[in-house]
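Re: the pair you flagged

First of the two:
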Amino acid sequence: MRGNFVYLSLEPVTNMIYSLGISPADFLNGVPAIPNQLLLLNAESASDAEINPHTRLQTLTGQTQIRRYLLGKHEHPVKWLDYTHGDDLDFLLPNEIAELLYLAHMDTHIRTPFYAKLQNDYAYLTLRDGFYKTYYRHLNSFDHVLEVSIKRHLRAMHNNRWVFARPLAISDVPQEILLQLIQGLADGMIIAFDQLVERHRIYVIPVRAITHPERQATWYSQEEVYADSREVASLRYDLTTREWALSIHDNQVFSDVMDLI
């Protein structure tokens, strides 16, 4: 699905972020540390992959190999969990392996996808048309991922508007703004960079709330996504002072999730 925008929704019980516009590079550049070992839930032809005899699933080891794998092109959807120790996989019970297979096949969890035996921090599922489901053991690990993505999208819009301008130096998004945005994820939210306007050297980026989240499985175009949304806030970046601000037009949208995260 084309378009310079970020779509996000949050399932707070399992810390699952459903997203469009958050790239694998955003994830890698935003998480506190790149995992050192991955359990691949889909068969892959990666030359670095090995077979774990107990689960009969492939594994990858080493941050360099994992970065190359996650940023590469793939014939099949990329689906994985991280894990801490090599022999942790050997202690998984048949029902736990079955849960992992269900997660990969159905793109959803039976129970929480975080396992004490694996000590995994993430579960990562590539879906259709650029959508992802990412589970975070610690939801605050998503804060910097979102910030990295926001800065990337804004930089892309600036470069498209001013082809011969210097690269835009963007300051960090304040933590309180990131938390306010995440509070608006109950039914889904769009950060609409392609609706950006410039006013007195301030970029104004509409933030839109999803009005019909039940239709998300039927979205196949940007127009369909935007048709099911309304503007509830605006994210602002001042090019002169390099300061961020968030103007909220509908406070109710940004309080629904507060008690759940």
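Second of the two:
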Amino acid sequence: MSTARDRWLDEGLKVLAEEGAAGIRIDRIAARLNLSKGSFHHHFDGADGYKKELLARFERLSVEALENAISAVGESAGPRTVLTQLTKLVGSDDTGLYRPEVETALRAWATWDADVRAVQTRLDEARLAALQRVWRPAAAGDEEARTAALLPYLLAVGATVVFPPVGPDRLRDLYELLLPLVPDDPGEAVPA
């Protein structure tokens, strides 16, 4: 059972996806949840506290989703195997691996809010680091692994910022076009 605090945060992410940062208004979220503003103030230290917790929740859920998906396959399985599994999960609603509406809203918000920009920076770095670890066994070094990790990540970022965002099924198709470029096993070199 979800607590009222969790409901506030979950609804805030829905509002962020639907309306952007401007929609994150306590009175509107309270009405959507049929909760009182008193409930909000019981769980959060004002609007700034809510914003920080909302951002922390999205950051945590996003990083955990990617890390859990990689762990489920096992990094030792090799880059192609791991990336093939990640590709299959792009369309799954419960993984959180691709949430274009939230990503778009967060990136837009980050252009004018330093706190959000810091979260977006950490989130991008954590995702790239996870993908870099996947690529590392097939790369000549960390820099090559980082470069290889950038291609699928930048594809996902670009897919979220075009209007309308690329849907999960189409993004999965695009990733499938990239999979033949990924080494089959850890001993195979990254294609030039």
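The mean pLDDT is 90.

-B.
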